[in-house]
Amino acid sequence: MAPTATATAPTTSASSGKNASSGSTQQSLSSFSDYHLDYSLWDAANPTSSSSQQFVASLRQAMVGIGFFYLHNTPLSEKRDAMFSLVSRFFALPLEQRMTIDMDQSRHFRGYCKFGDERTQSKQDLRDQVDYAPEVEAVEDEGLRERHPFLNLYGPNQFLSDEVCQGHKETVLDWFATAEEVSNQLTRAIELSLGVEEGDLSQFLTGETRMKQRDDHELDKLGPLPYARMKTIRYPTGDVVDGITRLDSSSTQGVGAHKDSGWLTLLAPSAEVGGLEGQDFSGEWLSIPHVDGSIVVNFGQQVEFLTNGIVQAATHRVVSNPSGKQDRYSVAFFSSPAMNTYLQPLDSGSFSKELVEAWKKAEAKRNAGEIVSDVPKGDLFAKADEPFGWHD
Ligand SMILES: O=C(O)CCC(=O)C(=O)O
Ligand SMILES: [Fe+2]
């Protein structure tokens, strides 16, 4: 019988987080064993095997933590060298060549976004990047796109030719598909950790079951519209980047404090240059360096929403060092609810006894259950009466 859980979302207060530069030595997430998970334990063909259950138990522990964990032994690790070779070759190209796939020419929001064009919390982010999403055909029906503007997100990516940047399309699409599969497997493992039925959570990711709730038959005809995004990112050094002068030469904001808006983020951070930081529940910023053989995973805001705050979306940022010796690169894959799905939080009453106990223990360790975060709570939660794609 399902235990009765009374777990509800803890309160969150926004405050200016404490910083390592204020004196104390910065702690590293890599030093906490609870935040290291071994994906090779997960047997996709047999989620109830003892090895899979071991994985599920370690995931449950991470799920009541600060929203980040290291995931060791995924198939992404063996693709890492090819991916980082591609990323450094891409950003070494002259700006004019990178601009041939400028995002401004894609109504699907794919392609290159040059240095300084992006902002977080109204401040310039010191990075440039390429955005990708599923390689699909565009929706041509203009009326349908007007009724459901999120359909503009569907379409092809922009890639450089092999002559200009060898393996661009192949390497990115291979990483994308592999990351998507890991995200799907993790979602199944999260269902087991929560103790809910198979599909209770993944239905929002696949869009299989929740789309036929409104009366636009043309939209229904498109079927489920799963979605994900991926970015290859550079945090460059130097006062002038591609001829663009930094607005604020003293700024170190690679990307400002934020919570990812979607489902799970699978991140491959630079091995050479640090800068990724996650905020713990007391507001302290921890460094999250790359650990060989792993990727970094964090929970996005829709997982927090669907689990009633049992799982917290990770507050994080990248601190840049413009006067450093080397540019920093990272590769981020963001899984997302399907665009035409309607999100509806799970019933906390159906969560497993183990999960509720783990959550209560974790909560008791916090300062009176209160979570300090530099980002307001739920600033990107989807609305219940709109399909996910509508939310901005
Ligand atoms: O570059 C990184 O390490 C993190 C990037 C990130 O948090 C984001 O793009 O949402
Ligand atoms: Fe992020």
UniProtKB/TrEMBL annotation:
The keyword Metal-binding applies. The keyword Metal-binding applies. Residues 226-337 form the Fe2OG dioxygenase domain. PROSITE patterns: FE2OG_OXY. GO terms for molecular function: metal ion binding; oxidoreductase activity. Pfam families: 2OG-FeII_Oxy (PF03171), DIOX_N (PF14226). It comes from Kalmanozyma brasiliensis (strain GHG001). It comes from the Eukaryota. This is Fe2OG dioxygenase domain-containing protein. Belongs to the iron/ascorbate-dependent oxidoreductase family. Keywords: Iron, Metal-binding, Oxidoreductase. Residues 1-25 are annotated as: Disordered.
